[in-house]
Specification:
Helices cover 31% and strands 26% of the residues. It has 336 residues and is α+β, with helices and mostly antiparallel strands. It has a domain of 228 residues. A 5-stranded antiparallel beta sheet has the order 8-12-1-13-14, with helices on both faces. A 3-stranded antiparallel beta sheet has the order 2-3-9. A hairpin with a 2-residue loop joins strand 4 and strand 5. The longest helix has 18 residues. The protein is globular and about 60 Å long. The structure holds zinc ion. Zinc ion (ZN) binds next to helix 3.
Length: 336
């Protein structure tokens, strides 16, 4: 185990990559906060995705139209972050022969080697990314189910007050004329999206990789625009043998708490991180109070220790390289 502060929770991870499910869940409970203008549309869409949902769990009679961020929009950027890291630290090219993994020059001299891994045409099917996040059918390799699950997440406040329509006049530089006016539908900075990423049957090191990707990733939203700075705030990690709650329930429970707090006004001004921190413990307690399974929540200083250890690993080039190699050795030698 690479991260010492996870030692206390060793029983909640699986020692080696499993062939069959055992439902050991480790959930990362977080808030995604926009720190710039962002665009959350589905492919080719002009307008951001919005859904009418019951406002709260208690306040279920009212409706709120909320910004929606689909699963792919959350996980794909984190996968790309992880994959770029694997490339930077020389995981590619690698080759496998008789369960032994070789790298670099040596790998390229082998009969067949993997020189990269990317969506959608060239998934290698053996690297940590492929084994953790899964892939759809690849010729000759079948498909692999993800061991990381997440759902669509929803804004707490109504879409009308967290959105801004901006018009741009595209200037033609050569002819000094103004061209088409393009209108974009933006999410404003300071919007919070409560979310849970649930891993199932990961080794402790695979979990460290997933959490590292989440901490490193800062750009979400419309691809190709390179805008949409998002800060991920990890609130807690929970270990269980059942799933905890849906992202929408998390958003609704926070909405209920804010509605009943006279110091918080959701309709004017901005919500801030402190508002969430004030209520998150009691909200999580309510949401997990009646689970039909075992459950342990890690927050406060214990969570800080885990996050600090993961940051320290990511700051140390030599350790990180060894860690990623070890991780890839495990996944590549796992006979599919
Ligand atoms: Zn791969």
């Amino acid at each position: 185990m690479t991260i010492e502060s996870l030692q206390d929770y060793a029983q909640y991870f699986i020692p080696t990559i499993p062939r069959t499910p055992t439902n050991r869940y480790a959930s990362i409970i977080l808030l995604r906060e926009t720190k710039s203008y962002a665009i959350f549309t589905t492919e080719g869409g002009e307008q951001q995705d919005v859904e009418d949902t019951p406002a709260g769990i208690v306040h279920a009679g009212e409706k709120v139209s909320r910004l929606v961020v689909f699963k792919r929009k959350q996980v794909a950027p984190e996968r790309r972050t992880g994959k770029a890291l694997l490339r930077q630290y020389g995981i590619f090219p690698y080759a496998i022969k008789d369960g032994k993994v070789s790298y670099g020059e040596e790998a390229t001299r082998m009969e067949s080697f993997y020189d990269d891994c990317y969506l959608t045409e060239k998934l290698c099917t053996h690297c940590p990314d492929c084994l953790i996040y899964g892939y759809a059918a690849v010729e000759g390799e079948g498909a692999r189910k993800a061991r990381l699950m997440t759902d669509t997440c929803f804004s707490v406040r109504p879409y009308e007050i967290i959105q801004k329509q901006v018009k741009f006049n595209v200037i033609n530089e050569a002819e000094h004329t103004s061209g088409t006016i393009t209108e974009y539908d933006y999410t404003t900075p300071g919007v919070f999206l409560p979310s849970v990423e649930t891993s199932v049957d990961l080794t402790a090191d695979e979990f460290v990789y997933v959490l590292g990707n989440l901490l490193r990733t800062s750009r979400y939203g419309k691809e190709g625009t390179r805008q949409g700075f998002v800060r991920n705030h990890v609130l807690a990690v929970a270990f269980s043998d059942v799933e905890l709650f849906a992202n929408l329930e998390f958003t609704q429970a926070l909405y209920d708490a804010f509605r009943d707090d006279s110091e918080i006004d959701m309709t004017s001004g901005d919500l801030n991180l402190a508002d969430f921190q004030k209520h998150v413990d009691s909200v999580l307690e309510k949401l997990t109070g009646n689970l039909p399974g075992r459950f342990e929540m890690v927050g406060g200083e214990k969570l800080d220790a885990i996050l600090q250890d993961i940051r320290a690993l990511n700051q140390d080039e030599t350790r990180l390289k060894d860690f990623l190699r070890g991780l890839n050795d495990q996944s590549a030698s796992f006979a599919v």
